Prior knowledge:
821 residues; alpha+beta; TIM Barrel; Immunoglobulin-like; Jelly Rolls; 5 domains; 8-stranded parallel barrel; 15 helices
Amino acid sequence: MGIFNAVFLxxxxxxxGFLSLSSAxxxxxxxxxxxxxxxxxxxxxxxxHYPRSTAEMWPDLFRKAKEGGIDTxxxxxxxxxxxxxxREYDFSGNRDIIRFLKTIQDAxxxxxxxxxxxxxxxxNYGGFPVWLHNMPGIELRTDNEVFKNEMQNFTTLIxxxxxxxxxxxxxxxxxxxxxxxxxxxxxIGSYGAKGRNYLQWCAKMxxxxxxxxxxxxxxxxxxxxxxxxxxxxxxxDGFSPNNPNSPKIWTENWIGWYKSWGERDxxxxxxxxxxxxxxxxxxxxxxxxYYMYHGGTNFGRTTGGPYIATSYDYDGFLDEYGNINQPxxxxxxxxxxxxxxxxxxxxxxxxxxxxxxxxxxATIYATNETSAxxxxxxxxxxxxxxxxxxxxxxLPRWSVSILPDCKQVAYNTAIVNTQTSIIEKMPNKAExxxxxxxxxxxxxxxxxxxxxxxxxxxxxxxxQKLASSDASDYLWYMTSVRISKHDPFYSKHMxxxxxxxxxxxxxYFNGELVGSQYATTGKxxxxxxxxxxxxxxxxxITLLSVTVGLANYGAYFDIIPVGITGPVQLIGNGSVVRxxxxxxxxxxxxxxxxxxxxYDNKYAQQLKWYSDEIIIKRPMxxxxxxxxxxxxxxxxxxxxQGLGKGEAWVNGHSIGRYWPTVIAPSDGCEECDxxxxxxxxxxxxxxxxxxxxxxxxxxFLHTDNNTLILFEEAGGNPTLVNFQTVTAGTICANxxxxxxxxxxxxxxxxxxDIQFASFGDPVGTCGFFEKGTCEADHAFLVxxxxxxxxxxxxxxxxxxTLGLSNCDNNINKRLAVQAVC
Length: 821
């Protein structure tokens, strides 16, 4: 995994330093904006987390972000992937934060580095390495010397690495802001005086590192100077910093939400995101960061929660695979361009707010040379028309109109004049690839654990983080109980009762699987009673506790117990209870296959596999197959429908936990009625598996044969597994007269066909367009000639281009197009 010790890390950093050819950049701030080389700036940032994508994906992600109007990339620093064991460090592969930052610089973008090192981020244990939990005397995120020493050591390590590579703006690098801690204001009250002391210590420790750029603290109204406190949320237009010399910064603009096992797919409409952004800049904001611009994938065992899904798509501007998410990307790209064009007047102009009542406001920004205006209607139920500066302006409900010259409306957040893309999955067309993959299998070896053999013992039940340091999702608990048939307690048929803090439990009694259960979403402790057949003499009890990501948020989240906390009881004759919680218990961390690295074909091929007849629906089973990489350059996914629960590896790379048997609720997916947004509305995927498609980055694949290995924990059928590619197959637009229609394919594809085109009053949505009451006769031919055979096309939406229509003068004409890539 590229683990190396601290001494070697220092030598590596000293001998491979990147000498920036850029001049030092002075980054400062006042109460109006972040200043770069003395100039106030409007900054638009997007979050892209390096371990949730791959190094090979980064340049393309940054190119698309920059094209979409982003000038800054924000990321957390994930402590647990860099220091998985104390003082052993890993910066390989997609953990290579230095390469990530240099790639940002190569793209001509700034960076915001949120060191934390607590990150939350729906990431396992909030980004903390679990070995912290097991240090004597430690208390996390409070005034505790053991924790502060470890936090300072890691923070200093990261800062020194970045200094050595000259990546802070003060050294000519891209990093213009850094963050210490994360959303501490949400929990500080629970830690009392020790929390307040810790907050002050964080600020002093960060300042002492002398990085010569500003530090921020998000969601912390008591952030001490010189920290800049910032806002996180769906809307931050009403946020005010705690110091008049701090600019108004929005560190997390939640443009969607994350996916959880057993839940629907959440979405946030482009119009609502645009409204929130425009309101923020209208109300004096000058830097905002989208969370997430590209969410990516929770590879391996990195998900937190618990029960966070492997996909971290977040309904981002770039989807999980890196495809442009339209119309969100294009609608906000136009907004970014207009806001950027107003940079000087927004950051230096005098500000005049006007309240028209009923949720309608105007804001005038003016200098001696120019002026710019915002008109906003926060009324969710009704449109409004206002008289402003000698003109009437129509304001759709829940929208902001932007007038860069205070005369003409250049953009309204509720009017989308950009294309919509329908992402489609295509079958694997690799040469000589069979319709069905050929599988081999082998059982997970559990004979030793079923007979009570393990690695260490204790005379009580151990909490799982303490026993395993989260080296695996799996921890075996083993004990035995001797019962004589002459014991009044004895009965051939008894009940074994186990109380667990989850998240999953498998129960073996005398070598037989007698029961299993997973916690329901949101409630992770449960009690399970199973009937057992007891024999006179020694009876073996083997319990397998399974985690699905450790808690990552809330006060004291770090001490939330997981695993079998007890009691474990045997209920016998006459309902007599024998408590086994303080028996001698034997423990084994992880799977035998994990220890043998079966997931890596280099080791898997040394073992015996069975291929004559595939065994299905068998718990605790490993499966292996080979496949050809799909042709082309489009992102690759694997369909794991038919499997139960487990983890998947492609050529030794974990693509994450899979759990397609978990189904989203069948209701709650009504059409999203803008502007009534909430994270529980605007959902899709009702009644379907939470996730059946899993991202396989192209960089994981070989040009010849590839190996897919599955650990099937619950029992499933791998014969349905198949690989496909993901692309924007259908593209649509429905734009107003007076604008420019822009259509483009992704992945190097060309527009092959125009399925619908009508200029008039067409009705319907993408995939369901129909002609309205009127249209121009030649619009279809014009669009066909301009677009077919091209990767992209632009059309002026006017009668001069598309021909005269037979529409009445009172009809606002639109051009609707549906094309195939």
